[in-house]
Amino acid sequence: MSVTETAVRLINDEGLPVRCDVRCPEGDGPFPVVVILHGFKGFKDWGMFPPTARRLAERGLATVAMNASRNGVEDRLEEFTDLEAFARNTPGRELGDVRTVVDAVAAGELGRRLDAARIGMLGHSRGGGVAVLAAAEDPRIRCLVTWASIARLRRFTDRAVAEWRRTGRLEIPNARTGQRMWLDLTVLEDLEANRDRYDLDAAAARVTVPYLAVHGQLDEAVGPADSARLIEHAASPEKRLHVIPRTGHTFGAAHPWNGGAPGWEEAVRETGDWFARWLGAAPA
To answer: How far apart are CA 9 and CA 105, in angstroms?
Structure first.
C-alpha cells in the first residue's frame, strides 16, 4: 500500500511549534489515527520512528509522529540544537503538546481522511509514560500501546536531586552525540508540584481503553518490570504485556536507521495487530 507523507507545523498554547509528520494510506478514508510520541532524548525522526510510522500506515492506519515542542530538536534536524529548550521540557508541557495534536485531529486540521473518532497513541520510553497520562485524561484516545515504557516519571536518586537543588541544574550526558545536556530546576519543581497527576500507577488505573505494553526482555535502560507494573494497574478489560526475548530498549533499532532487527519487526507487527483489532484498520 502506498503512503503519502506531509510535514505539519502546529502551534501549542505557549506559541511554540509542535512539528509533525502525517503519513496516510492511499484512499479516501477516513482512517484511524495513531499519534506517535518519542522518549526523553528522542525525536520524531530518530531511527525507528519514521519506518514504524510508514509500516503502520501500510496497515491502513494514519500516523502522526510528533516532536515535543521543547525536545531540543528544531525543524527536521536530527540533532539537539536547542539545549535550553530541552532543559525546560516537562511532562506537563509534553501533555500539552499531545493535546495540541489531538485537538488538531479532532478539528480536521490534519486532513479529513483522519478519523477523529478512532485515535490511538503509541509512546516509547518516557513517551510511554506521557501516553499513559494522556490516555487517562483524554477520552478521545481510544487505544493505547507503549513501547519500553517507564513506570515512574521521577527517576532520579536522592543524591542527584540534592545536587540539582544546589546547582539549579541536573547534568544529562547524551552518550550517542557526546553532548552535555541538562535539566533546569523548573523540571524538578514541575515533578514535585504535580506529583499526584504524574503518578503513573494511578493514571494506569484510569486507563480503560485497550492497552498493549511491549518491552524488550534485555532492556538496558528500563526493565520490563515497568511495563508489567503498568499493565497490572491498568483498568482496561483488554490489556496485554508482550515481552520480546533477546532485545533491548529500542528493539535492535538504532540511529541513524540500521534497517531494523527481528525485535523491532515483532514490536511493529504486534502493535499493528493491536491497533487494527481495536481501531478497525485494514488487516495485514
So the answer is: 13
Cell of 10: 502546529
Q: Which of 208, 204, 212 is nearest to 274 (CA)?
A: 212
Domain span holding position 136:
3-151+200-279
Specify the number of domains making up the chain. 1
Q: How far is CA 235 from CA 57, 91, 248, 279, in A?
A: 28, 22, 27, 19
Residue 120 lies in a domain: yes
pLDDT in tens, the chain (284 residues): 799 999 999 999 999 999 999 999 999 999 999 999 999 999 999 999 999 999 999 999 999 999 999 999 976 556 788 999 999 999 999 999 999 999 999 999 999 999 999 999 999 999 999 999 999 999 999 999 999 999 999 999 999 999 999 999 999 988 888 889 999 999 999 999 999 999 999 999 999 999 999 999 999 999 999 999 999 999 999 999 999 999 999 999 999 999 999 999 999 999 999 999 999 975 54
| 263/26 Cα distance (integer angstroms) | 28
Q: Say if residues 163 and 283 touch (Cβ distance below 8 Å).
A: no
Contacts for 175 with CB less than 8 Å, ≥ 6 apart = none
Whole-structure pTM over 0.90, yes or no? yes
